[in-house]
Amino acid sequence: MSNEAVLQAHSTAGHAGHHEHHHHESFITKYIFSQDHKMISKQFLVTGIIWAILGGLMSVLFRLQLGYPNETFPFLEDLLGKWAKGGKLNPEFYYALVTMHGTVLVFFVLTAGLSGTFSNLLIPLQCGARDMASPFLNMLSYWFFFISSIIMLASFFIETGAASGGWTSYPPLSAIGDFSEGSKAGMDFWLISMALFIVSALLGGLNYIATVLNMRTKGLSMTKLPLTIWAFFFTAVLGVLSFPVLLSGAILLLFDRHLGTSFYLSDIFVSKTQTALPNEGGSAILFQHLFWFLGHPEVYIILLPAMGMASEIISTNSRKPIFGYMAMVGSMFAICILAFLVWAHHMFVTGLNPFLGAFFVLLTLLIAVPSAIKVFNWLTTLWKGNIRFTPAMLFAIGFVSLFISGGLTGIYLGNSALDYQLHDTYFVVAHFHIVMGVASMFGMFAGIYHWYPKMFGRHLNNTLGYIHFWITIVGAYLIFWPMHYQGLAGAPRRYYDISNWHFLKGFDGLNQFISTVALIVFAIQLLFVFNYFFSMYKGRRVTTKNPWGSNTLEWTTPISPGHGNWPGEIPEVHRWAYDYSKDGRDFIPQTEPIGANESGHH
Amino acid sequence: MSGFFLIVTIALIYLVIFQIARASEYVGVLKGEDIMRKQSNRINGFLLIAFLVLGLIGVWYCNELFAKKTLFAHDSASVEGERVDSMFMWTLGITGVVFFITQILLFWFAFKYQEKEGKKAVHFAHSNKLELIWTAVPAIALTVLVIIGLRNWFHFTKEAPADAVVVEITGKQFNWIYRYPGKDKVLGKTYYKEISDKNNNPLGQIWSDNANHDDVIETSEMHIPVGVPVKLIINSRDVVHDVGLNHFRMKMDAVPGIPTTLWFTPKYTTKQMREKLNDPEFVYEIACDQMCGPGHFSMRGVIVVEEMGEYKVWLATRKPNYWTAFPDKNPFIKPAVTDTVATKAATTEVKTIDNKVAKN
């Protein structure tokens, strides 16, 4: 009832004042400190793209070292100065690159850039709301993210360099400056930046939850929501419940670093200074628990939005309802709950009580069941469809393929007795890059190609999109598939140079190959970035409100909606989002009332 | 100069791709969006099925190239590791079947059901029976894997057999220190505040504990006997490290303040492995598997597995660290004539060791 009142108030009183509002917008309120969810979503996306380029570049640099460990590249010294004396990355900087690549891609690109962008764009549009529950907090959410990213970027320019203890930043390595250059000021920058990022994620997440629960338009019950919204909703719940734990972990680490506490420190002798530290009684493992209590839900924070968008895009472009809607929602719910109960599978070999480990094996492998349901449901959605291969659709299909490939290797790693052998090898690198990194990236690309018309009123160039897709999927498999074999040969992660190891002989050629492909794939992403910015101004104009023949509410808004989204009243919803090819009709928008003679409806 | 040409070439490639893309967009506008869409649909449908076929060939080819370079090309060098090998094969079998079925269906469906003139998609939204099947089947398969996994896990992590040879291994940036319990079979107590590389006490042995007086410390290689269980007690002096024993198929973290353990039964001596692999340079290596600082990649240890007899001889010829720390306690060195000489001798020894440490 209260919903109704809010919406009515908006549409009657708000409509008259609507145009007025537009005239008062200055450059600053429209493009910088905007409170319009659509603009904020673009801010998240553009910042995410910039970070993706930087993060990708970092991987290209360290892949150069891995592929060509005996060669020098003088341009690196020009670019990086003392970090690449003589044209060869020094190990400190190599590890800083590895650390930052992980941090940036996981948090800035695939959390802020993915869920930040699309939750912001789609929650109000697909729920039929004029904006987020709190546009002001939403704006703050972006600006906290912005400050956090500036601090992270700044850490590269301090004398001792950026944090270099891996994106997981395990103490004691990350706690004591004498153990590594990156654990000096760089680590403080990292922790402060992460703390601000968590603030941003919480402000965003609370807003998403409040909006989905309270601001759905008339008739839009939760079971009529598109799967995208369900995915963003679960993502936000995961974030709100798990990010504070990382915040506490980060703050305790700051205390250990600067205030002489011993949360994580015990029995430590610093060889460099030949001194035994006074800290006793702390537990280095405690940090790992706190970290992974966020760290594991984090992979679902990254993956769920991609799943939601892939479901929506696959259904739309197959011209078929998503198969097993309730099973899709249920499996996302199951993933959301289980995500909190599996974190210690990252810690099987830390000396964790094996009995406790057994429960984490069980719960971890249990997650494979809802994941399998989702895959089979996507496959059945394609079955007997009438599929249109838009670039978005191709990326969504690619997402499913990568999710299968990477998900299956999770079954190896989640089983502690196999993790005993495979832990922290390249097998793990291959696994999480495919299932979380590349798959979610594909979900993000699918989302961008699909909703670009809604964002900018223009299309991305299709041909560039197809080239982008094909080179990226082939490249992704060429890079990460052979890495499984390196992992099965025992190659540990985060090795700067493997030439001293007898058991790793014979992979030089492969490492060069992977580095070369990585370079090509990176170059093709730049083509996408170009397409993105070029099409903003010169792309083919969108001529109809609903270019994909889609059922959801965002396509009932004007081609370029203003602040408030619908010029008149917010449309009422009468059905679920997936009435495709029903009763001989190609699609039936959610706003159309149920007909008298309609066959069974949802 | 070559860098310059590279940049120019890349820029030109970009330009060509971009021009093609722009041109195709204009063609699309002229021909009509619908025709264009159908055309690109056919091309992409074909590419999807081509990707599937080439991808499957690629999977096979990659396996041809690299399977022989993995550890699984040879059996495990420890008795316990055989369980890892067989479990790996079971998991590979089950996930392999799922992988091929789902990937083939995905690309085949995409190709087969591409948009065609006059065709309509089927409105098929729900089927309890199907969904029940693909909930139950994965659940059963996973139950099998969980049972195999947990049985092995409890076997690996149970208490080492009582007759196991005990070796303590301690990680520090960026090498390993090994300690053997000597004749009394008891490792003496240590306390990290007693650690002093200068005073030849790298592990902080408490000298008032008599059990320490016969403990042997080694920094170059770990020697262990073949055919009997070996128990490692794992420590760290500074950050978290990890004892990665690839050929034995296991690993365990070294955490400062929290000792961990690991046990296994070596099957082959280093010599036997050299013959088996036809590789005269083969050694068992300990790889640090946990990011531990800028020298992480170089934190290498070597294990020599030998016959029990050889092992016993080797251990018997080691000098307890107590004697290194206090040369005057060494019964085989004649008591020094005067105190000053003894101190001098001690200091020179310390210096040479210091130099060694510095060189390492």
What's the short story on this structure?
Chain A is an all-alpha fold and about 600 residues long.
Please describe what this structure looks like.
The complex is a heterodimer of chains A (602) and B (360). In chain A, a hairpin with a 4-residue loop joins strand 1 and strand 2. Chain A is an all-alpha fold and 602 residues long. In chain A, helix 3 packs antiparallel against helix 5 and helix 9 packs across helix 15. Chain A starts with a helix and ends in a 15-residue tail after the last strand. Chain A has a two-stranded antiparallel sheet with strand order 1-2. Chain A has a two-stranded antiparallel sheet with strand order 3-4. Chain A is built from 17 helices and 4 strands. In chain B, helix 1 crosses helix 2, helix 2 runs antiparallel to helix 3 and helix 3 packs antiparallel against helix 4. Chains A and B meet through helix 5, strand 1, helix 9, helix 10 and helix 11 of A and helix 1, helix 2, helix 3, helix 4 and strand 7 of B.
Topology:
The complex is a heterodimer of chains A (602) and B (360).
Chain A: H1 2-23, H2 27-32, H3 37-67, H4 74-80, H5 91-127, H6 135-154, H7 185-214, H8 227-258, E1 269-270, E2 275-276, H9 284-318, H10 325-338, H11 354-366, H12 368-382, H13 391-413, H14 416-422, H15 426-456, H16 462-488, H17 508-538, E3 580-582, E4 585-587
Antiparallel strand pairs in A: 1-2, 3-4
Chain B: H1 2-31, H2 33-66, H3 81-112, H4 128-157, E1 165-172, E2 175-180, E3 216-218, E4 222-225, E5 230-236, E6 241-245, E7 250-254, E8 260-264, H5 270-277, E9 284-288, E10 300-306, H6 308-316, H7 321-325, H8 339-359
Parallel strand pairs in B: 1-5, 4-10
Antiparallel strand pairs in B: 1-2, 2-3, 5-8, 6-7, 6-9, 9-10
